Amino acid sequence: MTLQQLRYVVMVAETGTITEAANKLYISQPSLTNAIHELEKEMNLVIFHRTNKGISLSKEGDDFLGYARQVLEQASILEDHYKGNKGGKKQFCVSTQHYSFAVNAFVDLIKKYGQEEYDFSLRETQTYEIIEDVAKMRSEIGLLFLNDFNEAVLRKLLKSHDLEFHPLFTAKPHVFISSRHPLAKKEVITNKELEEYPYLSFEQGEHNSFYFSEEIFSTSERKKNIRVRDRATLFNLLIGLNGYTVCSGVIDKKLNGKNIIAVPLADEGDMRIGYIRHRKGMTSRLGVTYLEAIRKYLE
Prior knowledge:
Elements: H1 3-15, H2 18-25, H3 29-43, E1 48-51, E2 54-57, H4 59-83, E3 90-96, H5 100-113, E4 118-124, H6 127-135, E5 141-146, H7 151-160, E6 163-171, E7 174-178, H8 191-194, E8 199-202, E9 225-228, H9 231-241, E10 245-247, H10 253-256, E11 260-264, E12 271-278, H11 285-298
Parallel strand pairs: 3-4, 3-5, 8-9
Antiparallel strand pairs: 1-2, 5-12, 6-12, 7-10, 7-11
Helix pairs in contact: 1-2, 1-4, 5-11
Family: Belongs to the LysR transcriptional regulatory family.
Pfam families: HTH_1, LysR_substrate
InterPro entries: LysR_HTH_N (IPR000847), LysR_subst-bd (IPR005119), WH-like_DNA-bd_sf (IPR036388), WH_DNA-bd_sf (IPR036390)
């Protein structure tokens, strides 16, 4: 197995066709096909299924691809360190629930390592996709929270995907509301006081279970529910409809706007916010820098 073969596999997976991958790699299609066949034979697995309609990743191939990406990233770090070059295009991806500190830390990372060429990704996405991204090593780090309600289910899922959870901080649940909301002047808000207002949450797609919710699950019934996909929509609805959402309380006026405030929520347990990573993975220099940046915003 060679690094070149791993680069070939990654390129074919990204383009979806042998033809386009060969063009981007500046090699012939037969040479690319033979290289992948040799790798599959050596590793005793089928990476790609071939049909008349084209190729697709096998289940084993999808797992293999995650490891291949990590090996290539570590090889790039070695070359950067020992060859003394600028390192070419840096690559890094993090998947996260909708946290302002995750965005701020990402900005700091790019300012430090952006250089002339880079390919960084910040995926604010659904909880199950965060777990899946890290499990398949599409993302090096995933950010989410555990609490007394979801911990047993999520830890079981993390274990089945060979992932580990590392706590960053413990947060008291807060309500995000408009600064003009009728409850904005209160020092603490109860679930009872929120009953008449629309509850806003991030929808979780096929895995729209309470266990995957980004917001604290409450035993109190919420009569008015609105689910959204993005941060901007949620905050616009908070203001326009006097709605609310439940979160960690870490707020950034530059990202969330001056019209959004956080007020402590009574009668709810703590949120243990942390990051997940693959047990067999290594935290890269970029990953270490990103986590250090996060901790700076939590001090």
